[in-house]
Amino acid sequence: MVHGPEEQCEDDTMPASRSRTPDHLARRTSKYRFHLRDAARRHQRVAYAALFEASSEALSNLAANPKFVGTDRLGFFGVLHTWGRTLEYHPRVHYVVPGGGIDEIGGRWLLSRADFLVPVEALSFLFRAKFRDILAREPASPRLTTRLEQ
Predict the structure, then answer these.
(1) pLDDT, tens digit, for every residue of 88-136?
(2) Is residue 1 assigned to a domain?
């Protein structure tokens, strides 16, 4: 697992027979590094919006690459969790993503690779860069941006 904002990414593959999608589902999790949690708690509106925006854009951008899915039209959804099992503040977003997407031109279903949706390392790198850039443009987030660079 890679810890965020690089992104913790987990692939939980569900067989097609148990799924309503043509192939499999992938579960993605994006979360903050430990040292960002205090700042994120003080600036929740900014931090959570940045977390959703950066993680969804990173996932869509990588999926658009023909090596992986070939479209950014995945149809995923994310759920914000703010507390962990031990009842400590631990913000993260869990995504449920179908194992493919809809082609923009013909409207046909494009499958992802069977072994993964997008590469974890590339997703982590892209997520971290997008998260940092989003916070940098937000005037109310100087503490978050400073903590991110540490």
Answers:
(1) 888 889 999 888 999 988 789 999 888 888 998 999 999 999 998 998 8
(2) no
2 occurs within a structural domain: no
In a domain, 3, yes or no: no
pLDDT at residue 141 tops 80: no
Question: Whole-model pTM above 0.85?
Answer: no
Contact call for residues 123 and 134 (beta carbons, < 8 A): no
Which residue segment(s) compose the domain that 49 sits in?
8-144
Tally of structural domains, the chain: 1
